[in-house]
Structure to design on (130 residues):
């Protein structure tokens, strides 16, 4: 059974207007734990839409770090994991089960977080092509 997974702590798929998401009946998950649990219970989705920042602590850290001279975000200090953590978990899941990584979108408003998700997934896909 195929399904479509939408990861975002606040928004709904129809709220995302800056990325051309297909008009699927998305299964919505709000955090890392629900993301993992859903995939473990339902299997690999056909498509995934990733948000990066999944909690207020992520938003606050991003806004502070994005000011000139403030530097890098220490993601290890967060209580809630990010969409990047979800992407990394999914890479391991696909690798262990010898499954292809599903089609994905990144709708995060955090440009650095968005690029980090895209980069880690594309690096994994390049690794598989070797």
């Amino acid at each position: 059974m195929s399904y479509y997974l939408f990861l975002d702590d606040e928004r709904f798929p129809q709220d995302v207007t800056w990325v051309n998401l297909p008009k699927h009946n998305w299964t919505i998950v709000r955090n890392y734990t629900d993301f993992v649990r859903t995939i473990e219970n339902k299997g690999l989705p056909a498509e995934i839409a990733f948000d990066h920042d999944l909690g207020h602590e992520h938003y606050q850290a991003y806004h502070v770090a994005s000011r000139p001279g403030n530097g890098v975000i220490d993601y290890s200090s967060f209580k809630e994991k990010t969409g990047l953590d979800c992407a990394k978990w999914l890479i391991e899941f696909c690798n262990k089960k010898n499954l292809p990584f599903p089609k994905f979108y990144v709708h995060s408003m955090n440009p650095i977080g968005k690029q980090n998700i895209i980069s880690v997934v594309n690096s994994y896909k390049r690794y598989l092509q070797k």
